[in-house]
From TrEMBL:
NCBIfam families cross-referenced by the UniProt entry: MFS_SpdSyn
Protein name: Spermine synthase
Keyword Protein biosynthesis among record annotations: no
Alphabetized InterPro entries for the sequence: SAM-dependent_MTases_sf
Gene3D superfamilies registered for this protein in UniProt: Vaccinia Virus protein VP39
Keywords on record: Polyamine biosynthesis
Lineage of source species: Bacteria, Bacillati, Actinomycetota, Actinomycetes, Micromonosporales
Taxonomic superkingdom: Bacteria
One of the GO BP terms on file: polyamine biosynthetic process
């Protein structure tokens, strides 16, 4: 999910679905005829270029993709679990850049799954989409299965508490391979209390954690997306190369790791199931 206001320049396609809580639409990007945006109640959720799956419109998605790209040999097939599907932007990108990658997508909203299935290009057979709850799905996965787990799970524009706790992070660590990578998309606003607590939560489980965000967010100047990366093996995150890559993005990002992440998360405490009631 992308943090931000409702989209104002969208050209609707004949694709609108309703459920109990929201209206879902897929609209054409007037600035890019092959671009399609998934909206929920007018708010951007996902963006797909139907002519080029490698095109990533949102900066937070490019940051997640950069972390994946740098953590494994170029072109090598990966096993990936996506928690939260949306328009399946990252599964499409991974299938295009790393053909043969076995991917499983868990999406809770059947309206999203059906709309995307009807209105956007089909996925290769290596990508399996299933309806379900993210936490329950992870608990059912075998240990040591995935190279990458990506969590982009939101309900009513908020991260569900059951995927924000140490206990859930421990389950993700269990299903990752020892050199695997866990990536989370967060939305937050100053003073980034949620992000700080999530850093502490991941650090309670994983050997190595870093944060990628717009420098303006870290200075308390804006609301937006933060990407967290974590791995069971110390030193597995290519921090220097990742920092170089995201700094060169059209929307420059910065990486916090080690001492700078210590300072950012000072005083924050891990979230547990008990805290969430």
């Amino acid at each position: 999910m992308r943090a931000g206001a409702a989209r104002g320049r969208a050209v609707p396609c004949p694709a609108v679905d309703h459920d109990d809580t929201e209206t879902l639409e897929i609209v054409v990007d007037p600035a890019r005829p092959s671009g399609r945006t998934l909206l929920a109640d007018g708010v951007e959720q996902s963006y797909v270029d139907v002519a080029d799956a490698r095109y990533l419109h949102f900066e937070y998605v490019r940051r997640i993709a950069a972390a994946i790209d740098l953590a494994a040999p170029r072109g090598a097939a990966l096993t990936a679990l996506h928690l939260g599907g949306g328009a399946l932007t990252l599964p499409r990108w991974l299938a295009s850049t790393r053909p043969g990658s076995a991917q499983r997508v868990i999406e809770r909203d059947p309206g999203v799954v059906e709309l995307v299935r009807r209105k956007l290009p089909r996925l290769p057979p290596e990508v399996v989409v299933a309806l379900g709850d993210a936490r329950e799905a992870v608990a059912e996965e075998p240990s040591g299965t995935y190279d990458v787990v990506v969590a982009d799970v939101y309900r009513a524009a908020r991260m569900p508490p059951q995927v924000a706790a140490v206990e859930f992070a421990a389950q993700v660590a269990r299903v990752l391979r020892p050199d695997g990578l866990y990536l989370i998309n967060l939305t937050d606003l100053p003073p980034l209390a949620h992000t700080r607590s999530q850093v502490a939560t991941l650090r309670a489980v994983f050997a190595d954690v870093c944060l990628v965000a717009d420098r303006r967010m870290l200075r308390g100047r804006r609301y937006g997306n933060v990407v967290l990366a974590a791995t069971p093996t110390a030193g597995r995150i290519p921090v220097i190369r990742l920092a170089t890559r995201v700094a060169a993005d059209p929307v420059p990002g910065t990486v916090l790791h080690g001492a700078t992440l210590d300072a950012f998360a000072a005083g924050a405490h891990p979230v547990t199931d008990a805290d969430l009631g």
